[in-house]
Amino acid sequence: MEGILYILIGMFGLVIGSFLNVLILRIPAKEDFVKERSHCMSCGYQLAWYDMVPVLSYLIYRGRCRNCGAKISIQYPLVEACNAGLYLLIFYVNGLSILSSIYCLVTSALLVIAVIDFRTFEIPLGLTIFIALMGLVCSVMDYKHIALYVFGMCSVGLVLEIIFILTGGSVIGGGDATLMMAAGLVLGWQKIVLAFFLACILGAIIHSLRMKFTGADKMLALGPYLAVGIYICMVYGNQLIQWYLHISGLDYIL
Q1: Where are the domains of the chain?
Q2: pLDDT tens profile 194-213
Q3: CA distance 7 to 217
Q4: How far is CA 134 from CA 6, 98, 102, 131, 179, in A?
Q5: CA nearest 176: which of 130, 133, 222, 220?
Q6: Which of 61, 70, 125, 166 minimizes the number of CB atoms within 10 Å of its CB?
Q7: DSSP letter (8 states) at residue 37
Q8: What would the pLDDT profile of 136-169 be if each residue is shown by its tens digit?
Q9: Rounded Cα–Cα distance for residues 130 and 109 (Å)
């Protein structure tokens, strides 16, 4: 029975991943992503349901439009498969629970944010608000420790927001600060601090390599790295914190 549930979770992740591709494409272009039907970007052909089976349709049509033969970006199956894989990992580590379901929804929003920010250096406010709403649900579910989530909202995000205001956005982006406030409501202060720390390390290493080997510009889109840090802490945050306390000897003191 548990195996069937994981299959269903993977399939659901693929379907949601297909919708994420729509958001990634249409949000920056400010296009309607609810009423307007999916279509080929080259010929305008309106896609039928069998043209949009996650991953499978891409493989069957060899990454090309069934109508005009135009090449379709590899992004589509990658996002679909990635979203499904991230869902499965969350449920595998955190168990079959409502909290895991919330983490999956947050993960999908983070995936869209990561791709859009990487391309445009902008984090859509609507997605950040969605994450904040999920954070409110988390804090209500754990209302006895609500202070943990309030401090989480302020500990990193508020500090970044102050830096953003004082520097006029030359050091940190306003979208990054808002995202960390929203994610702080999801994770609580300990894990959001860890998430930011991981994001800074990943950003410094990966972007340095990109500048050296691909000629990437010095300007860094921090959103993708923040998204990765937040996801890691949703899945392994408690384990990482306990590991750090153990190797530092603080677990005996605390």
Answers
A1: 1-96, 123-254
A2: 999 999 999 999 999 999 99
A3: 41
A4: 22, 11, 7, 5, 12
A5: 222
A6: 166
A7: P
A8: 999 999 989 999 999 999 999 999 999 999 999 8
A9: 8
